[in-house]
Amino acid sequence: MRNNLSIFLNISNNKFSDSQLYYQYKKLERKLINLCEIIVEKKIISGKRDYKKFLILCRSRTGSNFLVSLLQSHPQIRAFGEVFTEEEHIYWGYPGYNSEQILQLRKNNPIEFLNKVVYRETFPLVSAVGFKLFYDQAKRGQQKNIWGYLQKMSDVKIIHLKRKNILEAHVSHKLAERNNQWILLDNQKELMLEPIALDYDECLQAFEQTKIWETEYEQFFAKYKHPIQTIYYEELVSNTLLITRELQNFLEVNYWFLNTYTKKQNQVSLRDKIINYDELKDKFSKTIWSKFFE
User: Which InterPro entries does the protein's record reference (predicted)?
Assistant: First the structure.
């Protein structure tokens, strides 16, 4: 069965010229992955735990959905979404994981949830398993305990995703918040973009807080000598093949051409997205943040 699965998944190593065909394939692939997990769970075949564990560490609007969707197209990788949100929902990115029992386990014992559900025994073909975690997530209740636990799991590889232009991340967050459109699939239409006015103090706080987070959490995981691979969204978009090849080397999986089901949102200039762009540019002109303005 493992050989047959490998042959089937080999299809994803080619580019799809027909988007409808691609989405049909992705649906079938998701169902097959779910079936594989059920087979392991039912002990029909032996699963494995000796895979590479990884964590995608970032703030919001740094292209994490794009990165996760790329990694999900690799048959040897299980890349989960935001599993430690405060919502009564878990963004797995795969079918068959959401249940009331799993939600209760995450709430009452997040460390057991991490070990038994996220980093679970999985299909033998899988070589890397990880999930996405924002700097400001898992800060309340029992969930806050997972940070210290992850820090001491020195075998977890850290993919530190950043955005060079934090203003782009900030305005993207504000627009997504206003439009309630956090991810744009390749077959979806983007909502009409209306420019937004940004507050100077709020921008400054976003710039400073992001830099604090980046430094703090890099040091946090470096303390226990976690392998850390830093990537920038801008480079991931402009040189996807090179960056994804480097990531696959980092995760120690076979090289694969990675596909994505998402597309970039708000593909217009910052000046066109921000009503008071010139005013903000002038206020930040003599600061270290001036580089964020064109």
Answer: Nod_factor_sulfotransferase, P-loop_NTPase
